């Protein structure tokens, strides 16, 4: 199949190159008709359902941003301060996008006190609006010649995340492309050959980003998807192109014609690219198991980027090679690059030494990798919070100002929602339950205060409240002091209780409090739900724990099948899976050491924090696929040599000699791409993904493929190529043992089938 495709590409080379023009035009058009990524969906967990009820029935409590007004010379109680603040907020009062603006001057006394700083020099305005996309315009309407104004809150945080992500993408692209070009020049030694992978990567990147914007029209897409698309798309497109260009030049150097060189490059390196792309896409598709959270959109964006990179590498690239022919070697760079592997080279020597002393090489290497993975033993998981932004982010600075200066700010607020599908949340029976529940929650360890209609009037007894409700008159009308609390905490079907906790959001004590509240008996014909930051923290960790075994099992199983279809062995795919888990464990250990333990915090400009479980899922899915890249390319070259000689030792030595330098170069390029993203990014999630991938790829392309793989293959010997006869027969009947350079050898008659021979 791949041999035929190589010759089709050669004969249609000019047509394919012409087709790249409308392909690029359609990609650019995708930016015009698409929409910017945005993710608003609530996760399918209890905290998300409860928050959805609050947003629907108590709209003034959500969808807002905060404006902090301050003065060095005046107090918030001064009339001049008040008039200046009201004048600055005046344009918002006439803006239809604004639902409400709460200030110390238009709210009840209890709430007003919480909107003035402890020293009296600052005042807070809470602006409720319908759409976060309106934030920039609304914030731009507020100015004051005499007061300093800063902003924070959900809308401001989302705006800063988008701003930093867009800036990260532009800044890292300016570093990655020159760095990749330098490394490609070192690998190839000629300018023309080095530029080709960059051209393919640029085309795949533009198409990948356009696909993200087009997907934004069909579904919610997280803002992080563009960076992930660029991160993965650039890395794999350069890698795939590098292997195909290298094989094409290798065949030309051996005296083959241009057409035969294209055919062999597509049937060998192109075949490996196809299977490698499948394994990476499968790894990314493991995120589809996390429905309702942003992971699934990142998996979709990443898988599309990889498939587009494979498409470009198997169409436009070989067409360009067919047109260039020997001119691919023009503009040589002195002292670097080689078109052919040297049998006595470093990688052949390393493989030979490792296979002479497999145990001596394997044991210390495994100990080293396990040492790198050891910090995982004290891994601590928690949802990302505002600390995911850099310390200099305006919204984070504003959040710190509120936490330090305003009474009640920065406290851990746990919301309890009583949901009655039939409505009438303040019937006598339900009012009694509300009072009983408030007392039970107040008695739990870690509870500081409860705010609800049951606590709005000091001294109001349960019996009195139930009696009023029994009278048939609205509770707020009979007891005027409770009317404000009813407006704030009671909806058409729900009653909310705000539970203020002593312990911090991500503490074990706060998580225990959430679980204790959830264990309380629910109301008759109703539901008791808990939300808030700690509840989301608990639910996110539980959500990941429940779904991860299925996602991991799916990725491992399907990858195993794909690798069997590539090499026809049941042993080598198992070895590949174990090697991947080794690289991933070392990468996770590095993340814990850097981001949780705080090493390199000042150099990388972040605040040490617990690891977000979704980041680990992202890394696992991406690394598992990308690690297979080098396994696929190495195994295909080893299998080629083994088919020629029938000797595993010589096959591994020659396979590593012909691909080791190339794999190292490809790994250096991909690690450089990831390192640039991680090192230069501002948001912690991109830092963690970038650095985690860079470490995993660097280890995988050097230590794992250079030492662990040849040592294990030496110990396994002929068992490397074994498959049960029924599976081996299927493999051959499907024609998957295709190899352009050798005819397929006859099957042996023994029950143990050595498929490579």
State Rg: 31 Å
Strand fraction equals: 5-15%
* Poorly predicted runs: 339-344, 739-757
The counted number of beta strands is: 10
Count of alpha and pi helical runs:
27
Distance between the termini: 20 Å
Average residue-wise pLDDT: 84
Question: Can you characterise this structure?
Answer:
With about 750 residues, the chain is of the alpha+beta class. The chain has four domains: about 1-35 and about 160-335, Multidrug efflux transporter AcrB transmembrane fold (Up-down Bundle); about 70-150, no CATH class; about 345-370 and about 570-755, Multidrug efflux transporter AcrB transmembrane fold, CATH 1.20.1640; about 410-540, Alpha-Beta Plaits (2-Layer Sandwich), CATH 3.30.70. It contains 27 helices and ten strands. The protein has helices at about 1-10, 15-35, 45-55, 80-95, 110-115, 135-140, 155-190, 190-220, 225-255, 260-285, 295-315, 315-325, 345-355, 360-375, 395-405, 430-440, 460-470, 475-480, 485-490, 510-520, 535-565, 570-595, 600-605, 615-645, 650-680, 685-715, 725-735, and strands at about 65-70, 100, 120-130, 150, 410-420, 445-450, 495-500, 525-530, 720-725, 750-755. The chain has a four-stranded antiparallel β-sheet with strand order 2-3-1-4, sandwiched between helices.
């Amino acid at each position: 199949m791949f041999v035929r495709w190589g010759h089709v590409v050669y004969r249609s080379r000019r047509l394919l190159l012409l087709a790249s023009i409308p392909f690029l035009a359609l990609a650019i058009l995708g930016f015009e008709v698409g929409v910017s990524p945005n993710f608003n969906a609530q996760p399918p967990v209890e905290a998300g359902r409860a928050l959805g009820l609050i947003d629907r029935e108590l709209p003034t409590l959500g969808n807002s941003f905060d404006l902090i007004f301050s003065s060095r010379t005046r107090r918030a109680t001064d009339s001049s301060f008040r008039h200046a603040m009201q004048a600055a907020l005046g344009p918002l009062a006439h803006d239809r996008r604004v639902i409400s603006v709460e200030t110390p001057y238009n709210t009840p006394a209890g709430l007003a006190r919480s909107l003035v700083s402890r020293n009296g020099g600052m005042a807070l305005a809470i602006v409720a609006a319908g759409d976060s996309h309106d934030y920039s315009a609304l914030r731009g309407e507020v100015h004051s010649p005499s007061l300093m104004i800063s902003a924070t809150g959900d809308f401001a945080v989302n705006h800063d995340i988008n701003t930093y992500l867009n800036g990260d993408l532009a800044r890292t692209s300016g570093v990655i492309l020159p760095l990749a070009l330098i490394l490609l020049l070192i690998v190839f030694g000629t300018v023309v050959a080095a530029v080709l992978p960059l051209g393919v990567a640029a085309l795949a990147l533009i198409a990948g980003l356009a696909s993200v914007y087009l997907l934004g029209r069909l579904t919610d897409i997280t803002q992080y998807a563009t960076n992930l698309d660029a991160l993965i798309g650039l890395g794999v497109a350069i890698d795939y192109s590098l292997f195909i260009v290298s094989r094409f030049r290798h065949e030309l150097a051996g005296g083959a014609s241009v057409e035969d060189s294209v055919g062999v490059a597509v049937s060998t390196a192109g075949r490996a690219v196809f299977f490698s792309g499948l394994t990476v896409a499968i790894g990314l598709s493991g995120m589809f198991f996390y429905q309702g959270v942003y992971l699934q959109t990142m998996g979709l964006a990443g898988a599309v980027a990889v498939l587009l990179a494979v498409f470009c590498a198997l169409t436009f690239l070989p067409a360009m090679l067919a047109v260039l022919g020997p001119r691919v070697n023009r503009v040589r760079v002195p002292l670097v690059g080689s078109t052919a592997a040297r049998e006595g080279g470093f990688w052949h020597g390393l493989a030979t030494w490792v296979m002479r002393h497999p145990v001596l090489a394997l044991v210390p290497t495994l100990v080293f990798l396990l040492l790198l993975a050891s910090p995982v033993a004290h891994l601590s998981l928690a949802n990302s919070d505002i600390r995911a932004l850099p310390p200099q982010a305006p919204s984070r600075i504003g959040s710190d100002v509120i936490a330090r200066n305003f009474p009640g700010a920065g406290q851990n607020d746990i919301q309890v929602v009583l949901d009655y599908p039939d409505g009438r949340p303040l019937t006598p029976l339900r009012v009694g339950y509300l009072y009983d529940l408030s007392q039970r929650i107040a008695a739990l360890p870690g509870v500081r205060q409860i705010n609800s209609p049951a606590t709005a009037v000091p001294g109001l007894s349960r019996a009195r409240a139930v009696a009023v409700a029994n009278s048939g008159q609205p509770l707020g009308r009979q007891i005027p002091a409770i009317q404000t609390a009813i407006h704030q905490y009671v909806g058409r079907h729900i009653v909310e209780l705000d539970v203020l906790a002593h312990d911090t959001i991500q503490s074990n004590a706060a998580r225990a409090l959430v679980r204790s509240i959830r264990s309380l008996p629910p109301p008759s014909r109703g539901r008791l739900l808990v939300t808030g930051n700690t509840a989301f923290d608990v639910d996110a960790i539980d959500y990941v724990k429940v779904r991860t075994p299925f996602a991991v099992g799916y990725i491992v199983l399907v990858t195993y099948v794909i690798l069997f279809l590539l090499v026809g062995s049941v042993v080598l795919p198992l070895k590949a899976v174990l090697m991947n888990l080794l690289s991933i464990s070392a990468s996770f250990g590095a993340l814990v050491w850097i981001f949780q333990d705080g090493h390199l915090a000042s150099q990388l400009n972040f605040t040490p924090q617990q690891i977000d479980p979704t980041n680990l899922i992202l890394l696992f899915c991406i690394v598992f696929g990308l690690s297979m890249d080098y396994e696929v390319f190495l195994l295909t070259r080893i299998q080629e040599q083994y088919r020629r000689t029938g000797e595993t030792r010589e096959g591994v030595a020659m396979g590593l000699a012909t691909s080791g330098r190339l794999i190292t170069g490809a790994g250096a390029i991909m690690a450089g791409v990831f390192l640039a993203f991680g090192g230069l990014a501002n948001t912690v999630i991109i830092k963690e993904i970038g650095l985690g991938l860079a470490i995993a790829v660097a280890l995988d392309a050097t230590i794992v493929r250079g030492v662990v793989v040849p040592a294990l293959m030496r110990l396994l010997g002929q068992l490397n190529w074994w498959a049960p006869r029924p599976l081996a027969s299927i493999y051959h009947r499907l024609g998957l043992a295709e190899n352009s350079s050798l005819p397929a050898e006859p099957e042996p008659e023994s029950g143990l089938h050595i498929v490579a021979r």
